[in-house]
Amino acid sequence: MEQLWSGFVEALRLIANRDSELWDITVRTILVSGVATVFAMIIGVPVGYVLARGRFRGRTVVLGVVNTGMGLPPVVVGLFVWLMLVRSGPFGGFELIYTKRAMVIAQFLIAAPMVVGFTSTAVQALPEELPDLLSVLGAGRLRTLWILSREAHLGLLSAIMAGFGAVVSEVGASMTVGGNLQGSTRVLTTAIVLETGRGNNDRAIALGIILLVMAFLVNLLLTAVQQRTVRARGG
Q1: How many domains does the chain have?
Q2: What residue spans of the chain are helical by DSSP H?
Q3: In this predicted model, what pLDDT tens digit does every residue of 17-61 receive, in sequence order?
């Protein structure tokens, strides 16, 4: 308890003093995880819709792959991306390894299966006849996808929360492909590992508290939007 209290006091001190390194790490964390989540939504929502409404050979296998991906250890994803981006790898010429872009790629691969899975479940919960009805009314494919997304947006908000929560809290992939470089690729989770290894437990706990508060505030915002929609429908 004493260490937790010391960490809490240290967190308040860092925030009150506007510690430049802390804010730099926090902003980088939000940027990397936010961009990865946005890309996961852009690609994952249409894929989830296709899996929910499509009837094609191998669909069950694809769903199985998606479900497996939802539980894939981040460090394994990081290793795969590292092998692809390292200088001797197939994409080594792009010089992406140990950059924020490499971290975005790794986190995208972690978040995408969750977005696809949650989207597929949300769309499958809609009435089966809804797409056909929209087609009869003259809605094109993109218009139909947009309307179905609006109808299933409670599930989509859950997808955003699940995807963002998974990537903002992971450390293995970010450490592997980012290298935890000061002023470049260091984020809150990798900074916690570093400070713990140095024996700076107070600072590590402080960073952990800040990470938890940040994740809570983002999810609180999304939950408020979600619940407002529920109340609007109920009223």
Answers
A1: 1
A2: 2-16, 20-53, 59-70, 74-85, 100-124, 130-136, 141-151, 153-168, 172-178, 188-198, 201-234
A3: 877 888 899 999 999 999 999 999 999 988 988 898 788 888 889
User: Which token pair is 209?
Assistant: 């508290």
* CB under 8 A, 24+ apart: contacts of 145-150: 145/45, 145/46, 145/49, 148/49, 148/123, 149/45, 149/49
Q: In whole angstroms, what is the distance from residue 60 CA to residue 51 CA?
A: 9
pLDDT at 168: 94
Calpha distance 27→34 (Å, rounded)? 10
Find where tokens 């937790």 sit: 4
Full residue range of the structural domain in which residue 194 is found? 2-234
> For position 234, what pLDDT does the model report?
58
Q: What is the pLDDT of residues 102-112, one digit of tens each?
A: 999 999 999 99
State how far the alpha carbon of 190 is from the alpha carbons of 27, 59, 180, 204, in Å. 14, 37, 6, 10
Amino acid 110: pLDDT: 96
Residue 203, domain CATH: 1.10.3720.10
What token pair was written down for 6?
């010391």
Instruction: Report which of 116, 34, 101 is spatially closest to residue 69, judged by C-alpha positions.
Output: 116
pTM, 2 dp: 0.87
CA dist 197 and 4 (Å) reads: 17
